[in-house]
Amino acid sequence: MIRPLRVALTATLTLALTVPAGAASAAPAGAPTGAVDRAAATRWAADTWRSMVAMTDPGTGLPADNIDGDLTVDSRAKYTSPTNIGSYIWSAVVARELKLIGERELVRRVDAALDSLARLDRHADSGMFFNWYDPATLELLRTWPVDGTPVYPFASSVDNAWLAAALMIVHNALPQLRGKSDPLLNTMDFGFYYDPQALGAEVPVGLMRGGFWVEPPPGCSLPGNYRGRGPDVHYTCHTYGAFNSETRMISYVAIARGQVPPAHYFGPWRTFPDTCDWSWQEMKPVGGYREYAGVRVFEGAYRYRGLQFVPSWGGDMFEAFMPDMFVPETRWGPNSWARNHPVYVRGQIAHGLEDAKYGHWGFSPASDPAGGYREYGVDAMGLDTPGYTSDQERTSVDYGFEGCPDRPAQPEPAAYGDGVVTPHAVFLALQYAPAQAQAELAKLRREFDVYGPGGFYDSVAVRSGTVAKRYLALDQGMVLGALGNLLGDDVLRDQFTPGGPERLLRPVMRMEEFSVPARQ
């Protein structure tokens, strides 16, 4: 999601997602709650839902982007996005499944949100929504309400994918509202973002652009129109090239909607190749090439603390696991995601407890306890060389790139600083490490003032004890999504997957084998 609070995150994504020229077993989706205390988890869900209700404008039915930890109405943000709206809709479906609200309230809330969505300005030729609206007036923002800076209306591909996912859930979970949800969904054409030549003429599939502006923005943009419908737009100069990222949700939705070829699944990089042309990435990957559906794929993997896995872009939990809330990746990818997800969680735990020695774990972009918003992750588990770091001091690693003289290895850090843990990252791990995740959440509550009227606050710097006492619609939606699937027998996955996802996406996912051992 592109917004002023995420300038650092956006800048790194823009720079390096452009494709350059030159001993745990997988828990199946729907696994038993295991060591998770169901009563405690239900209380967490109820409190988290309270924050979503507090963020929602009663006149329009749309959520704000965030709210202060005391849930006062006056502290609601004056802006919202397609992701926030989608997050609220799927959270309401979870709330019904967990009996936090009844059917009538669910229908009322989703109906109001759909009515407001239909009134928002959007890009007529693609059906895409822009990134920033006033949730109280429904006006498209052209001035940022926090500081008065100009806003250039931008249609983000990943933000629209999260909203489309929510509308697909409405279609299956609330058939009585299809008359309102389907017209919105059916006009959203993700082929508008699809650059079929992004990987070169010799590769039969392309990549997704980060989004487009309807007017030329400051900085880099590329005029074009992949659908040839309406006037040219101004695309981001980057395509999304890293596969293990939240941006794979764009591909999932576009494939499921029949708007791009299913083989596009194999276009983005698992890691970048192992030659010196790609030595800017975090480390030299292991692995080799395989071919699926006519696409040659470099099945690369990274190694960290004895674990082998496909990295995310920044080494964080949000990128690796948010799409898994909707697509049953471990079932549909038995030789790929089913191997990767539990190992990736183990890497996050190992970093927090063994490497950085914070005594805590769970790293993902979140509110900065010092103010604003920042990206956090495990640097060694991400493709990005500068990396999303786990602490305030931005302590990073550089393993070099064996065989490339321009990338010698650097000494490992002597110590890490004030590590920042975000509870939503721990919730995303519940399916794959239930005992460890519940223990971490309990320890956070025991050691810090990290729980308020809307559930867990957004983040805590664990050495200073500084807490970001704020709730974000996106992060609360991840908490509820994870709990809904865990306690509600895969409710979001079951309501997302019928139809196109099952028919078009599942077959390509089943083909792939990551360079990740079946047992580690």
From TrEMBL:
UniProt keyword terms in alphabetical order: Signal
One Pfam family named in its UniProt record: Glycoamylase
InterPro entries documented for this protein: DUF3131 (IPR021478), Glycoamylase-like_cons_dom (IPR019282)
Claim: Signal is one of the keywords in the record: yes
Gene3D superfamilies: 1.50.10.140
Domain Glycoamylase-like: 290-495
Claim: Zinc-finger is one of the keywords in the record: no
Residue ranges annotated for the DUF3131 domain, each copy included: 43-184
Signal peptide, first to last residue: 1-23
Name recorded for this polypeptide: DUF3131 domain-containing protein
